[in-house]
């Protein structure tokens, strides 16, 4: 994917620097992981430091000393995360700031203008977001159709389509027909990229398959708010390209390491005298020995720090053309080689793309 601040290899996981910084990492450290696209949040940057400051400094890239690409969430997710402070109408979303209780009316036009000032390489439309598991079908359809209307307003308000790519967001909860209807309408608008919203709460990823089957092959497909390893791997197999989530870096700050064999809670006393790397065989800076130019960080050291300091997490990329076998090996490693423990939703979803986790030759 080619963006103004450089190319980005797909699939890509975007770490979340909500307010312009990734907790526990400097921009240089983030860059050293190979990250070339990270996420900022429009709602939070709109409050602090605010559009006047960002415009004065020349945008969020300069403000946070980040030379690579940025994607901005439109602020729509705050309708769920800050629902007690928000009221949604056709005009937009009225918020009370969690910082100082000041009001903000976030309309499609204002969200787009804020993102234009931020200068993000990828701009997200403002969508009407409710929990995908909501039992209120009428409200779900209202949110889906309103998101389509709001996309039209975002397109009209967008000032820099030549250097900022606007992505639409597919809504519709867990209703297959609503998702299809939303896809059909959004695709008519021909935005540079397409996102699937409303699946960040751990829901089964059937909707990913339904949507990606309708998407054109030449546009990036972004599943918003997804970051658990199983979700990433299954969603890539179903045709998704882009993901973001606070979970990997948040869980790292509490001493949890995401490894090929599952999550390690390094706060547990069993690791207090474990002087092996966080993940043996990993070539990241943390796991490499000092002799190999790394930091030589051990599990015991992270155990020691976990209660007092932030612990860094490393990103990994899968570049080999062995994806189906990698998926099987991954699930075997995480679930102890027992197919009975594999999540049924993952088994079902992967069968749709001819990857059978029930096959007797798993791990062979």
Throw out a few tags for this protein:
single chain; 364 residues; three-stranded antiparallel sheet; 34% helix; globular
Detailed description of the structure:
The chain is of the alpha/beta class and 364 residues long. The protein has 14 helices and 15 strands. The protein has helices at 27-32, 42-47, 51-57, 60-63, 78-81, 108-118, 137-157, 176-188, 206-212, 229-237, 247-253, 299-306, 323-334, 344-351; strands spanning 2-3, 6-7, 12-14, 37-41, 69-73, 86-88, 93-96, 103-106, 122-124, 165-170, 193-196, 221-223, 242-244, 256-259, 262-265. It is globular. It starts with a strand and ends in a 13-residue tail after the last helix. Mean pLDDT is 87; it is low at 310-321 and 360-364.
Put the structure in a nutshell.
The protein is of the alpha/beta class. It has helices at 27-32, 42-47, 51-57, 60-63, 78-81, 108-118, 137-157, 176-188, 206-212, 229-237, 247-253, 299-306, 323-334, 344-351, and strands at residues 2-3, 6-7, 12-14, 37-41, 69-73, 86-88, 93-96, 103-106, 122-124, 165-170, 193-196, 221-223, 242-244, 256-259, 262-265.
Please specify the SSE layout and strand pairing.
Elements: E1 2-3, E2 6-7, E3 12-14, H1 27-32, E4 37-41, H2 42-47, H3 51-57, H4 60-63, E5 69-73, H5 78-81, E6 86-88, E7 93-96, E8 103-106, H6 108-118, E9 122-124, H7 137-157, E10 165-170, H8 176-188, E11 193-196, H9 206-212, E12 221-223, H10 229-237, E13 242-244, H11 247-253, E14 256-259, E15 262-265, H12 299-306, H13 323-334, H14 344-351
Parallel strand pairs: 3-13, 4-5, 5-9, 9-10, 10-11, 11-12, 12-13
Antiparallel strand pairs: 1-2, 6-7, 7-8, 14-15
Helix pairs in contact: 6-7, 7-8, 10-13
């Amino acid at each position: 994917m080619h963006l103004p601040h450089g190319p980005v290899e797909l699939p890509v996981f975007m770490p979340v620097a909500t307010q312009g910084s990734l907790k526990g990492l400097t921009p240089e450290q983030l860059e050293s992981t190979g990250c070339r696209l990270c996420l900022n949040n429009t709602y939070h940057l709109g409050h602090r430091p605010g559009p006047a400051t960002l415009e004065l400094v020349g945008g969020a890239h300069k403000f946070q000393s980040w030379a690579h690409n940025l994607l901005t969430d439109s602020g729509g997710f705050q309708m769920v995360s800050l629902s007690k402070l928000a009221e949604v109408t056709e005009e937009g979303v009225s918020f009370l700031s969690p910082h100082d209780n000041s009001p903000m009316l976030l309309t499609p036009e204002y969200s787009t203008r804020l993102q234009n000032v931020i200068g993000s390489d990828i701009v997200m439309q403002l969508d009407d977001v409710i929990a995908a598991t909501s039992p209120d079908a009428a409200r779900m359809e209202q949110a889906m159709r309103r998101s389509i209307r709001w996309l039209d307003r975002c397109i009209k308000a967008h000032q820099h389509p030549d250097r900022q790519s606007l992505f639409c967001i597919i809504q519709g909860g867990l209703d297959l027909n609503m998702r299809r209807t939303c896809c059909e309408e959004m695709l008519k608008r021909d935005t540079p990229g397409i996102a699937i919203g409303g699946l960040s709460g751990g829901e089964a990823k059937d909707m990913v398959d339904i949507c990606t089957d309708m998407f054109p092959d030449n546009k990036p497909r972004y599943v918003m708010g997804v970051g658990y390893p199983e979700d990433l791997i299954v969603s890539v197999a179903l045709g998704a390209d882009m993901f973001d989530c606070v979970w990997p870096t948040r869980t790292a700050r509490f001493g949890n390491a995401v490894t090929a064999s599952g999550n390690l809670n390094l706060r547990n006393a069993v690791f207090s005298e474990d002087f092996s790397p966080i993940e043996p065989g990993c070539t990241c800076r943390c796991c490499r020995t000092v002799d190999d130019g790394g930091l030589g960080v051990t599990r015991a050291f992270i155990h020691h720090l976990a209660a007092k300091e932030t612990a860094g997490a490393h990103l990994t990329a899968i570049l080999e053309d062995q994806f189906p076998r990698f998926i099987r090996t991954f699930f075997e490693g995480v679930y102890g080689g027992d197919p009975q423990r594999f999540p049924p939703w993952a088994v079902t979803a992967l069968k749709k793309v001819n990857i059978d986790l029930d096959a007797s030759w798993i791990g062979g």
